[in-house]
């Protein structure tokens, strides 16, 4: 009816007003939202498993949480920013000349900020649960340890080099899968289903490479929430496994560069113009 | 052969006769069926897990039951009514001027009635199981509590504000995912697979936000079965967690409106004409 | 190279020779293979869970076994026979004038024979396991009962009418989903993925309606293996739950007819010509 | 901006330089990578379940690991080599005149080498975990047996003929599914999703036929890692179940040939030219 069409027109005008002019800002917002969704679902699933003491999900549901988190974390920003979701990816694209160095810092900050805020959201949503489970003692280790909700910690048996090797293999595996899915000269994923298959890649990595150090194959995913847990009261113990992290970040970025060249990394990561 | 073609023609005439003339009635019937399927599978999976005492499925199978329930609950009515399945969605669309206020009450009643009748169906289907499991004592809490089959109850540790925050975050997450999947300016889901991906969004929300208060992110899904369990003999205890519900319903509708404007909610929810 | 092309030509001629002329026979063969695959995977998963005493899969993996069994059981014959896989479906299509009465008996026999032979195959494949698990005592009930591998048995608490209601609801749910997926006037499943979504429907029914009497929503699936287990040495106890089965078969066929008319059953079940 | 375009051009020239001229070498590299991915994820999931003593995944996650491993193991080489991933497949295609005998040895060696190196990678990645779990005693049987990470061992109850039958049925099931998915005269899988559905076939076989002897339906998948575990210190006990393996390899190749002819094996396995 007319009244309805009239309201719709008004709405359209409003929407046009709301539209953000700056393309860079829209891209940063997209990256922010993408990483935010990824961490919200991923860390949320860890929080649910931890605080419910495995009664409302076990380890596999964490794998699935991060997998589907990735899927929707790619769906949300893909059309706007190309869904890097990962500082190492953005940096690699710069090195490969597929992404401008000037936009790099904005992307990285958006990603880190998204991860940080998502961790805060999970902490807010599970505040009562965490308090009830820990009795208010926020610890990194022990029977009621909850720091693992936010960032990853290597298994006790893991040596430094073991952690480095684990991260290199995990990242290489993710990369080979993602690049194969996006390579038009190969068998690309069907249009519109790439995010689902990238999620599947994250799922299988969690199933086959998760037990050593929690497959933290994304610096933003790991550092943002870790920083939050440090500030929020888990203390500086959260930064003990620092060395490993730094090492694999370097290794990873180097790796991205090499593999990127080998596999024509440029196919699937060019942000779609709009 | 001719005989077969003849029968087919007769059938076609019969079908034409059966065809419902009123479009509004067809839409209401569609919404009714959609919510009915959603609750039939969703609450059914809870009933199976509860009455089989985790031997024929555990918490994750409930997440999957609601996820696939949503998938088929969207497939069934989508072509006719646009598959709102949710009073808050219908209301939001009215506010956004995408849906006529005159049809709103019919939609909402169909949704509530579908949820109510589905709960009754589950109770009928699991009557023997519930009687065997509870010994005839229909309780809301305790070792043999069965009210949870029909509607959601917050965890003991959950504070009022904790529940409100939980619901706001859960609804916002669902919305962002659903809107991204339907946004043609972004990376939309492949045609014909939207229902599957909406189901995946419900799945990941159940995996990452299910333990606080059971992610009842749909007023019809929660109120219809709750009313049934009240009438069917679980007593007025089922309405104890009322306050939370009212609060998040308000919050949610407000939220839908805001986000709807932000994300051009109109893309994926216009009922397809037929 | 030439030698290779030459071999290929020879092969093509061989294939042409092998090609079965009679279309009816090809269709029956297709139905046979479809049901065979469905039961091979479905009952196989039950055998694995039973004989491994839940160490190599639990109840959900049985749901998944029948779901994926259905998926591939539809992929294999769909192009040839339309993948009825179910006597009730074939009969309904006859009643609806979409399938010739003359072909009905051939289809039903192929389906039953496929189910029977698949049960025999599972028994052959798991012979050592069953012998090791049961110590050679093939029983229908008790701690080492193995008759459940082949056909479904109602839970102890289930009353006759409870079983009937359970079967009617289960079959109706399956039908509504399958018909919605195939209805071009609605939101049909993407071409080539119908079998996957039909499998998903079977999965959610197993998750939400499996605990009462094992969702035996297909007479061929239930009767063929039951007959085998009777012959193979489980004794006539396997036919005790007969009454229920007969009742729901009648109810189901009646139901198919009604719903078929209501939902234009003809859309998705016409065998594709070839 | 120009600077960026300039860098991109340089990169393209670099890529052209990197491009491998020999088509055969590219195909072998593709087969190598495909099997490598398959085993990396498959055996990795076994390693995670074994060394974490079922706390970070149980038997089903192994099924999923091999299923998704197959999916990505097909995505990676499909466009280049047709993704045989299996000596028996390559051999069958030769027999069917669809693949040149001259390329056969290169393919088989690439597949075996990929499987061997992937097993080594898994051992490297899980070195600390295996040492911590076994205390340094690498055994084939016993409470802390770890040889099962690399290759499959029949259950204790399994007789020789039982193993042979198990393997024949498993291979036949896989074949029928894969051939149906690729048969254009039937209902083929949607373009770009074949790898996912082949993975689903592997999943359902693992769910329904995994408990007898671990569904080692691929000689390369089994022999490569077995050889590695022999060399790496698990001793010659890893070759005890030899007889079975040889038998089913012969049976399988024979089977492939027969079924291949019956089902027009040629449809889905011709390597796509590029």
Main β-sheet of chain A, in a few words? Answer: none
CATH classification, class level of chain A? Mainly Alpha
| Uncertain spans of chain A | 260-274
Number of domains of chain A: 1
CATH level-four homologous superfamily name of chain A: Glycerol uptake facilitator protein
The global form of chain A is globular
Number of strands of chain A: 0
Provide the gyration radius of chain A in Å. Answer: 20 Å
* Average pLDDT taken over every residue of chain A: 83
Q: Sketch the topology of chain A as an H/E string, one letter per element.
A: HHHHHHHHHH
Helical segment count of chain A: 10
CATH architecture of chain A: Up-down Bundle
Assign the CATH topology of chain A. Glycerol uptake facilitator protein
The oligomeric status of these chains comes to: homotetramer
N- to C-terminal distance of chain A? 33 Å
Measured by residues with Cβ under 8 Å of the partner chain's Cβ, the largest interface is: B-C, 58 and 45 residues
Structural description of this entry:
Chains A, B, C, D: One of its GO terms (molecular function) is urea transmembrane transporter activity. The structure is a homotetramer of 274-residue chains. Chain A has helices at residues 2-18, 23-51, 59-81, 87-95, 104-125, 127-134, 160-182, 194-209, 219-234, 242-262. Chain A has a single domain (21-263), classed as Glycerol uptake facilitator protein (Up-down Bundle), CATH 1.20.1080.10. The two termini of chain A are 33 Å apart. Chain A is 67% helix and 0% strand. In chain A, helix 7 runs parallel beside helix 10. Chain A contains 10 helices and no strands. Chain A is mainly alpha-helical. At the A-D interface, helix 3, helix 7 and helix 8 of A face helix 1, helix 2, helix 3, helix 5 and helix 6 of D.
């Amino acid at each position: 009816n007319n009244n309805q069409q009239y309201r719709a027109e008004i709405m359209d005008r409003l929407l046009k007003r709301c539209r953000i002019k700056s393309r860079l800002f829209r891209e940063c917002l997209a990256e922010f939202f993408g990483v935010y969704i990824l961490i919200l679902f991923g860390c949320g699933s860890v929080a649910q498993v931890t605080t419910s003491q495995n009664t409302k999900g076990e380890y596999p549901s964490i794998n699935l949480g991060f997998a589907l988190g990735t899927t929707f974390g790619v769906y949300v920003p893909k059309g706007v920013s190309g869904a890097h979701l990962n500082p190492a990816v953005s940096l690699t694209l710069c090195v490969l000349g597929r992404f401008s160095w000037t936009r790099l810092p904005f992307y990285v900050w958006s990603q880190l900020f998204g991860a940080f805020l998502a961790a805060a959201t999970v902490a807010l949503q599970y505040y009562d649960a965490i308090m009830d489970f820990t009795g208010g003692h926020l610890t990194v280790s022990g029977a009621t340890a909850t720091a693992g909700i936010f960032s990853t910690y290597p298994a006790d048996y893991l040596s430094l080099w073991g952690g480095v090797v684990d991260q290199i293999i995990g990242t290489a595996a993710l990369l080979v899968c993602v690049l194969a899915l996006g390579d038009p000269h190969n068998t690309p994923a069907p249009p519109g289903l790439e995010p689902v298959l990238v999620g599947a890649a994250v799922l299988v990595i969690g199933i086959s490479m998760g037990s050593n150090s929690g497959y933290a194959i994304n610096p933003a995913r790991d550092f943002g929430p870790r920083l939050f847990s440090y500030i929020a009261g888990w203390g500086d113990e959260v930064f003990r496994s620092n060395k490993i992290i730094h090492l694999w970040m370097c290794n990873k970025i180097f790796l991205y560069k090499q593999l990127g060249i080998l596999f024509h990394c440029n196919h699937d990561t060019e942000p779609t113009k709009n």
